Amino acid sequence: MKADLIFINGEVITVDEQNRVAEAVAVKGNRIFAVGTTAEIKEFTAKTTTIVDIEGKTLMPGIIDAHIHLTIYGTNLLGVSCIEPHIQSLEDLFIDLRKKVQSTPKGEWVRAWGFKESNFKENRYPTKEELDSISAVHPIVIIRTCNHTSIVNSKALEIAGIDENTPDPEGGIIERNTDGSLTGRMIENAHMQVFQYASYSNEEIRKGMKLASEEFIKAGITSIHDAGGYGDGAEIIRIMQQAIKAEEVKIRVYAMVGSLTNSHEFVKRMVDAGPISGLGDEHFKIGPAKLFTDGSSVGPTIATREGYTHDPADNGIIYYSQAELNRILGEAHEKGFQLTAHAQGDRAVEMLLNCYEEALAKHPRVDHRHRIEHAGISSPDLQERMRKLGVVVTPNPVFMYANGDKYLEYYGERVDVMYPIRDLIDKGITAAIGSDAPVTFLDPLLGIHAAVNRQSIDGQAVGSNQCIDVMEAIRAYTWNGAYASFEETIKGSIEPGKLADLVVLDSSIMKKEKSEIKEMTVELTMVDGKVLYDLKKVAEREVEYEY
């Protein structure tokens, strides 16, 4: 057999069992055909074969982002971005919001995303009154970067039916001034409930999914584990499947059965409906049943066993009691679902492990691969329980880069066991890296950089005892992600017979200085044997082979 396309003269990081580094790869159809030296792979060349000389650059498996929000990332692109370089102050943001108001019909939502108060000159949230001055007839919502908090204007509160007499929802806070009046700030479940009214149309959601898929592919991401969005989770999954079938979304999706709003209701609907984790094909599969147990690490609203370092009286928010958590996820486990939950603080992680232990005691299952999303603060006692249970963890090293300065302030020495990927690997616990974009940066190379260097954006060391090496970080972003979705036999490494999901970088990642990994870029992304992103258009050139 001859190959359709071959890559030669590269640094081919296979992520196979031996972590071999080869030189060349042959692709036939949508599969990897052969891996070896350049001379060996050239033997599979025919007149119709496309040859790509990657000149010593890295060729690696396609990135599998094990925790990301496809819908939120995509629909964010339709709103006002708070992270644009020109936005340095609240007035800069207000100017963009006024422009959006002018192009938005009266009564329709104006949304902004990516807000982080410390990035603004004023270092504070906007007030409800400031947003009211922008428009009294448009509901306005500004979503904090963590997606756990927002600030809204009076029109938004009116639409959501919230006033001074509205009680705080369970697991949420409607912030009030000292006189009882509303500030407009919605925290945790209060924010989730308000956004039910601010949700996008199905057409906007589908458009956003397409835009997000294109951005992911440019970043070298070929598969994602979608961690859910706002609104009706079942409807989101339906739209997602339609977009994938129409090839508008070209990445592979493992869709968690979870929603940022009333996740327990969505889980119950899916459990009652019959499908379980793993249903689907190589392009789309149903993933684990997912709940939220606590809040945001940079809010901070995560549930900790001890008070925050900067505020010892505060130890966060819990969404469910232990009994509720055990009942909801226990039923999903009994029916055959893989389980997971957003659990950031050590108190939330402990509760989730309690839940898994009870579920497995009642209904033992071999190779369940139940997960913990984030596992933000995970001390050695919790790590040991993870190991014994065979839990898969999806840490987010890029959080240390984006938020490390705040983590030092909020959690003190606990940063040494935050997203503890070094400890997890050493204990034999599978750790699959996720970016959690758009909560923070999408770029997988920045994620690898953060895992290897464990420094904040301003260069502070943040739990440097958890640094891992480059090869370990690549495995956590590829094979481990495939394992977390029960797909390690078909993707996650460059081996004959596996899906041809590949990425070419702009240089050799193994030779790059560790401090410079974040400067690297993706040159080419292949999904299913098709080049979907080619910075240099190498796939459009036919290279004649001399016999």
From TrEMBL:
InterPro entries: Amidohydro_3, Metal-dep_hydrolase_composite, Metal_Hydrolase, YtcJ-like. This is Amidohydrolase. Residues 51-533 form the Amidohydrolase domain. Keywords: Hydrolase. The keyword Hydrolase applies. Pfam families: Amidohydro_3. GO terms for molecular function: hydrolase activity, acting on carbon-nitrogen (but not peptide) bonds. It comes from the Bacteria.
